[in-house]
Amino acid sequence: WLSFNAGTGVLSGTPSASDMGLSTSISITAANGWNPDAVESFQIQVNGVAPLITSTPVTTALASVNYTYNLAATGNPAPTFSVSGNPAWLTLTGSTLSGTPSLADIGTTGTITVTATNGQAPDDTQQFQITVSAIAPTITSTPPTSVTVGSNFSYAITATGTPTPTLSVAGNPAWLTLVGNTLSGVAPAASIGTVGPITITASNGFGTNAVQTFSFTVDGTPPTITSLPITSVVVGNVYNYTITFIGNPTPTITVTGLPAWATFNAGTNTISGTPTSTDAGTSSTVTITATNGVSPNATQVFNLQVSTLGTGGGTGNSGGGCSTAADGSFMLVLLAVLGTLIFSVRLRRSLR
User: Fold this and answer.
1) What is the 3-state secondary structure (H, E, C) of 32-71?
2) Within this chain, do residues 193 and 148 fall inside the same structural domain, yes or no?
3) How many domains in the chain?
4) Is residue 300 included in any domain, yes or no?
5) pTM of the full predicted structure?
6) 214 lies in the same domain as 254
7) What is the pLDDT of residues 99-124, one digit of tens each?
8) Can you list the alpha helix ranges (DSSP code H) found in the chain?
9) N or C: which end of the chain has fewer CB within 10 A?
10) Does 334 reside within a domain?
11) What is the pLDDT of residues 7-55, one digit of tens each?
């Protein structure tokens, strides 16, 4: 591995790892034809470089979280590592010291010794301890304060801590369940009002559990009357107005101001009746109120007029005051009168 350049007088070369530990005797002679020649003898010993650990140990760890310390060292040949005094959860693989401590490992380990060797003296050692800790749970999310009846209540619970906290719930109604970290359910009409107190607990086996207690309100939807009233009816015709509405809980309908000939059926929410000739020309102010305990109530007020044949009109969802049957009767009478007139005219012409 060593060569001599006669032109420059330089002896040079690079020993390999296989030359390590070898000793070579070398003689250099200088001659110019005059005695005596100059001779210099010496030996070259090829030595390695002792190991030196250059990495800084990681001295803290969290329970349930993987700990990793990547070892580094200089030296020639490349050093290899060994470890002693390490806890059972910590193992050395190649140049990596790693493992996951449990809650039972919380505290400070004994002295861990890492040794780097490469056959060159001296070996290098590094000693350190690892402090294992955990983080008590904390609930950081804020629960909703209200939900509309019939809608989905959903609360995504966020909790921090190491190890990862587990969640539990108490005081929740049957329709509200915890799946994973989400408390959810559809609020029924029976739940209108205040729900709670509900208690969420986050625990991870370390420190004090985190507890969050809250209540929320289930709000109903106020009633709305969605149908248009029928405001007139013809004498002898059947008046029929079915009231439609929305709201949660289901609204209750009350009717006031009905004329004597009309009645309200609370089972079908229908106003019906048939005015007689004595009711012709009358007008009644009808008030319909829908209530369900959620403000405001819904109110519909209209005038119900009774007209004689041919003068009725109307608005609403059943076609006004004149029924199809009444219109048909009228047309039959009209056709009969017209037929009689036509027959009389033809008869007079034939007599002439």
Assistant:
1) CCCCCCEEEEEEEECCCEEEEECCCCCCEEECCCCEEEEC
2) yes
3) 4
4) yes
5) 0.63
6) no
7) 999 999 999 999 999 999 999 999 99
8) 324-351
9) C
10) no
11) 898 988 888 777 776 778 898 988 888 999 899 988 888 878 999 999 9
